[in-house]
Amino acid sequence: MKKMVVGITGASGSIYAKRLIEELLKNDTYIHIICTDTGKKVMKYETDIELEQWVGELQKQHDNVVLEDNENLFSKVASGSYKFDAAVILPCSMGTLAEISSGIAKNLLCRVADVALKEKRQLVIVPRETPFNAIHLENMLKLSRLGVIILPAMPGFYHKPETLDDIVDFVVGKTLDSLSIENNLFKKWGS
Ligand SMILES: Cc1cc2nc3c(=O)[nH]c(=O)nc-3n(C[C@H](O)[C@H](O)[C@H](O)COP(=O)(O)O)c2cc1C
How far is the CA of 31 from the centre of ligand 1 (A)? Predict the structure, then answer.
């Protein structure tokens, strides 16, 4: 079973993370969820979802999902010797992006990103901010040059979305594509 870390920060768009986790659970994946404190607050504000409660509901049906404590640097995912396959941070705030690009690893989420970088594992960052300032752009460029996939939460409209779910599914589908996980979340161009 693949092991993945899904990080959620206080950027707008935790609805993407919820959708991604639902899809990963269909894909026989062991999921470690890490959410920042602001991430939990923004999720509650934007979606009315209490993260702990929602994950608790998922755990009633799935034994392959765990909610990590972002302050727990003793977690197994904090160590390079625990072989997770990939980490995705979505949505990623500019603050967390800056910490990762500077090598600061003072919480579990940033430590996981640091581990992914040092162990050359797949790291996908889905930044959300607009407009970007030069610091944001430089931080993304730095990480991109280290092999990180920078996949901005920028929905396309060529698949003719009709609902909010269609727009969310486009970004989540692109994220799954970047992890080479088969999905039909949006109609692929030419299909
Ligand atoms: C409702 C709301 C929406 C926000 N949206 C964004 C955003 O889209 N991008 C961003 O970089 N920060 C956004 N912020 C600010 C971050 O939450 C803030 O910088 C925070 O310190 C990020 O911390 P974290 O990375 O530990 O979650 C938002 C804050 C709130 C309250």
Answer: 23
